[in-house]
Design brief:
By secondary structure, this protein is of the alpha/beta class. It has 19 helices and 25 strands. The strands form four sheets. An eight-stranded antiparallel β-sheet has the order 3-2-4-1-10-9-11-15. It binds fructose -6-phosphate. Fructose -6-phosphate (F6R) binds next to helix 10 and helix 16. Fructose -6-phosphate binds next to helix 10 and helix 16.
Length: about 625
């Protein structure tokens, strides 16, 4: 899974108007979503290298260890989600060498750490943790012992590593520099005024700068307070040559403001992000423009289309596949990224893969995209993060413009993903002559109105969602049933409830529910029915009655006008009548609100579901 790393190099003390330890604490706080089982920093102070680290959440650890009291010009920080070695003080990052001069923070997994560690132990290095990461400072020390300068020693170290990594390293002998390297795990440079930054994600330094450089795979370099140097090893026959990268060409300015990355007055990011959906949908719509033309042509000409994603992005993929099958009459299939391996052989040139990932870094989705590309399949990335791994490797890219999503549970990124996929399908249907101008305009009009529609749904149903949550909070299990488009919406509702409120929730095709699941239904068992159209509502009517006959507690998320034949449900969320495209986006909103409030009532923190991290970079 993910960890978060940060690094800062300032030109002079006070350049950032606060002690470096406090800057690192704030930056780590913005990366808390990437992991939160242990925290640490290393700063080069007037008294040498100071390392403070401990198991625990950021707020308590940074207060206990007094992060804010330490100052210096160079420092690194880390927030960890354990992969090698259980969460503990000794396994927390940064890790140091034997001399205590070098400190390293790392996100990813070093696959060959065991053999490297054995070699280093044979040479006399003493390890203080169970982590894969600790081989890095010891290797740097080893190369320095052989006479290399610190940066050369860092590069030599990186060349020995196999696996995935984003690394920030400091060395007292290197002075005011942070060395960095990236392979697979994300790493961004922030160019500030009087200070430069490195981080796993942009919100870490948004308070100080919006100017960024995204470090690419296999790049190595260093930052000082006023410069950035990046180089890449290019293979020439048996030899490798280092090519330095033109920084000017890579510089970007992001549109995100610091406020966008903070809670903006809401108690939790999840609630803030649910409320941000109108804005996220609006900016995604405005960002689409003409850019979809190539995507539409490629999909329209495809033999078949697979949509891959994990978790919520899989649910968006599922909707995308139904849109394409049903509206565009293109054969499309949703596949869970980590299962793609068993389907890949059916793909070849002429097929298209849509890789859906808000972070653009989910390793299973990235690997699926790579395998598809190797087979000559055209890969289209749908992501929320500019220049992230999957977009960089894809043939074509479409971005959602949801802004940073900090809550671990995906909300605004789901609705924006579904919006984009629905627009693509409508355009494919039009391009292929399956729908006429009038029908496609009816979809697009409703899609363009989604910001307003979603706003109204939130205002109308926030209080009711809280009421439903009061009862839901006392339940141990729930079913989410739907047919057609209502099924992936139900799957998303069930995922939200289980991940943030820890209520066991299972989504099932409504028509299939009597082939097994109904055996669990007893008095008061919660069943949430979703139908995005009158057709679907008509079809679930008999399922509702079957469940009511077993005294289930039934909740319906259905379009206006279906109150009549679904009159017996206990709780009703009457939704606006919309084309299936826009409805598939809008009808998930009550599900998100019910999950959020059930989590709150049960006393949990919905932003940090246990055992989960926002970006999953291990298979
Ligand atoms: C659920 C959730 C996860 C992600 C999944 C994929 O609320 O957030 O299930 O959807 O880890 O992440 P991305 O979309 O970044 O590939």
């Amino acid at each position: 899974m993910a960890c978060g790393i940060v690094a800062v190099v300032a030109s002079r003390k006070g350049a950032l108007r606060k002690p470096l330890g406090e800057v690192i604490r704030e930056s780590l706080k913005s990366l808390e979503y990437r992991g939160y089982d242990s925290v640490g920093f290393a700063i080069i102070t007037d008294n040498g290298l100071v390392v403070r680290k401990s198991k625990g959440m950021i707020d308590s650890v940074t207060a206990k260890l007094g992060f804010s009291e330490f100052d210096g010009l160079v420092g690194i920080g880390h927030t960890r989600w354990a992969t090698h070695g259980p969460p503990s003080d000794r396994n927390s990052h940064p890790h140091t060498d034997c001399t205590g001069k070098i400190a390293v923070a790392h996100n990813g997994i070093i696959e060959n750490w065991n053999e490297l560690k054995e070699m280093l132990v044979r040479k006399g290095h003493v390890f203080k943790s169970d982590t894969d990461t600790e081989v890095i400072p010891h290797l740097m020390e080893e190369f320095k012992n052989k006479g290399m300068e610190p940066y050369e020693a860092f590069k030599a170290t990186i060349s020995l590593l196999k696996g995935a990594y984003a690394i920030a390293a400091i060395d007292i002998d290197a002075g005011n520099k942070v060395f960095f390297a990236r392979k697979t795990s994300p790493l961004i440079v922030g160019i500030g005024d009087g200070a430069n930054f490195l981080a796993s994600d942009i919100p870490a330094f948004l308070r100080y700068t919006r100017k960024i450089i995204v470090v690419s795979d296999d790049e190595v370099g260093y930052v000082t307070s006023s410069s950035v140097f990046i180089e890449k090893l290019i293979k020439k026959g048996d030899k490798g040559i280092w090519i330095s990268i033109d920084i000017g060409k890579r510089l970007r300015t992001v549109e995100w403001t610091p406020e966008m990355a903070m809670k903006g007055g809401y108690p939790h990011f999840m609630l803030k992000e649910i409320h941000e959906q109108p804005q996220a949908l609006a900016s995604t719509i405005s960002g689409l423009g003409e850019k979809l033309d190539d995507v539409v042509k490629v999909i329209s000409a495809a033999n078949k289309v697979v949509l891959v994603g994990a978790g919520t992005s899989y649910h968006a993929s599922y909707l995308g596949a139904i849109f394409l099958n049903n509206l565009g009459e293109v054969f499309a299939q949703p596949i869970i990224s980590s299962e793609m391996k068993w389907h890949i052989k059916s793909l070849s040139e002429g097929d298209v893969m849509i890789a859906v990932s808000q972070s653009g870094e989910t390793i299973d989705t990235l690997l699926a995209a790579r395998e598809a590309k190797d087979r000559g399949v055209k890969v289209i990335a749908l992501s929320n993060v500019i220049d992230s791994a999957i977009p960089r490797e894809a043939d074509l890219v479409v971005y959602t413009r949801a802004g940073p999503e900090i809550g671990v549970a995906a909300t605004k990124t789901f609705t924006t993903q579904v919006l984009v996929l629905s627009v693509i399908a409508v355009k494919v249907a039009k391009y292929r002559g399956i729908v006429n101008e009038g029908a496609s305009e009816a979809h697009l009009r409703a899609i363009r109105s989604l910001p307003e529609t979603v706003n109204k749904i939130i205002s109308k149903y926030e209080a009711k969602s809280k009421d439903v949550a009061k009862l839901m909070a006392s339940k141990r299990s729930a079913f989410f049933l739907g047919r057609g488009y209502g099924l992936p919406v139900s799957m998303e509702g069930a995922l939200k409830l289980k991940e943030v409120a820890y209520v066991h929730a299972e989504a099932y095709p409504a028509g299939e529910s009597k082939h097994g699941p109904i055996a669990l239904v007893e008095d008061g068992f919660p069943i949430v029915f979703t139908a995005v159209s009158h057709e679907e509502a008509e079809l679930i009517k008999s399922n509702v009655e079957e469940m009511r006959a077993r005294y289930a507690w039934t909740i319906a998320v259905t379009p206006k006008g279906d109150e009549g034949h679904l009159k017996n449900v206990e709780e009703r969320f009457t939704m606006p009548e919309l084309p299936v495209t826009a409805a598939s986006v809008a009808y998930v909103v009550p599900h998100q609100l019910i999950a959020y409030y059930t989590s709150i009532i049960r006393g949990y923190d919905p932003d940090k579901p246990r055992n989960l991290a926002k970006t999953v970079t291990v298979v």
